[in-house]
Specification:
With about 300 residues, the protein is of the alpha+beta class. The chain has one domain (about 45-280): Spore Coat Polysaccharide Biosynthesis Protein SpsA, Chain A (Alpha-Beta Complex). The chain has helices spanning about 5-20, 25-35, 60, 80-95, 110-120, 135-145, 175-180, 200-205, 250-265, 270-280; strands spanning about 45, 50-55, 70-75, 100-105, 125-130, 130-135, 150-155, 165-175, 210-215, 215-225, 230-240, 245, 270. The strands form 3 sheets. A 6-stranded mixed beta sheet has the order 4-3-5-8-7-9, sandwiched between helices. It has a 4-stranded antiparallel beta sheet with strand order 6-12-11-10. It has a 3-stranded antiparallel beta sheet with strand order 1-2-13. The N and C termini lie far apart (about 75 Å). The model is unreliable at about 5-65 (pLDDT under 50).
């Protein structure tokens, strides 16, 4: 067979594969092979900074309906911006998760946490007023881990106190009542060596209870070291776009970011370019150069 005929056969075979597909493998199968290997949402989008969150498994995670999941309780005082309180509420409503926002002017955060975890409920989940899940899936998996008997929360380090050890922070924290009792019903109040919420982690570990910490993925404005494991800061995303915690929630730019991320959850598409622009203003326009005089300047 001449080289020309061989080349012609090769071209025809390639065209057949491109148009019809390889025998036994559909176009859909090829797409599945290149998709995410687990149940987490995949990211899609162009290079503009926007990323869409696609539903992972609607049969498992269900439609956004409150009532089939435990509620989340959050503490705040009257010095918190109403815009921030409203933004958190609409995220939880959008995800179909019951949120109980507790305005407690007469209780400290520590006192409220102790009161909440001591309550006679099967499961207690708390979060900060400037935090929320980024998807219903993330919250369902959070609850699933609690049901196994773990204490679970967002990973935190108190850089201003103690030895810089990681703990499950109260910005999103939960366990069953049985787990809490098995840990010795510890107070979550701060002390000379631990920050608020930190004692629960160490009490659990001392009693052989597993503690799971969801690490930060990145922060819009990196600020503090997470020991030797990473960095967190203003606008921190945890897990694989699972949870969001603001920090510095009384700063105007932070509140703007919080509202923008809340919008992203509701739209199902995060615009990270927009988030960055809140902290990194665009450069000023270039100054026009003056005309040269007599060709000397």
């Amino acid at each position: 067979m001449s080289p020309i005929i061989t080349l012609a056969f090769a071209v025809c075979a390639l065209a057949f594969i491109l148009l019809v597909g390889w025998p036994g493998i559909s176009r859909r199968g090829i797409k599945q092979l290149s998709s995410s290997p687990d149940d987490r949402p995949t990211l899609a989008g162009d290079n503009s900074g926007e990323r869409s969150l696609e539903a992972a498994d609607p049969e498992r995670y269900g439609a956004p309906m409150a009532g089939d999941l435990p509620p989340v309780r959050t503490y705040y005082r009257d010095n918190i911006s109403p815009e921030l309180v409203e933004a958190q509420a609409r995220v939880f409503e959008h995800l179909g998760i019951e949120l109980i926002q507790c305005l407690e002017p007469d209780l400290s955060h520590s006192q409220w946490l102790d009161k909440t975890f001591a309550a006679d409920r099967d499961m207690n989940i708390v979060c900060d007023i400037d935090a929320f899940p980024l998807s219903r899936r993330a919250f369902v998996e959070f609850v699933d881990r609690i049901k196994t008997g773990s204490v679970i929360g967002l990973e935190q380090v108190a850089n201003h106190i103690g030895e810089g050890k990681a703990y499950a922070g109260p910005m999103f924290l939960g366990c069953t009542r049985q787990t809490y009792l098995a840990a010795g019903s510890p107070s979550l109040a701060s002390n000379p060596t631990m920050d608020v919420g930190q004692p629960l982690t160490y009490a659990a570990q001392e009693n052989g209870i597993p503690v799971e910490m969801i690490p930060p993925q990145f922060a819009m404005q990196p600020r503090w070291p997470l020991g030797d494991r990473g960095i967190f800061g203003v606008g921190t995303f945890y897990g694989r776009l699972d949870f969001f915690h603001l920090f510095e929630s009384r700063v105007a730019s932070s509140i703007e970011l919080f509202s923008a991320v809340a919008d992203g959850v509701q739209k199902g598409r995060h615009d990270f370019g927009k988030y960055l622009a809140i902290f990194i203003p665009p450069p000023p326009p270039a100054k026009k150069k003056g005309k040269k005089r007599f060709g000397l300047f």
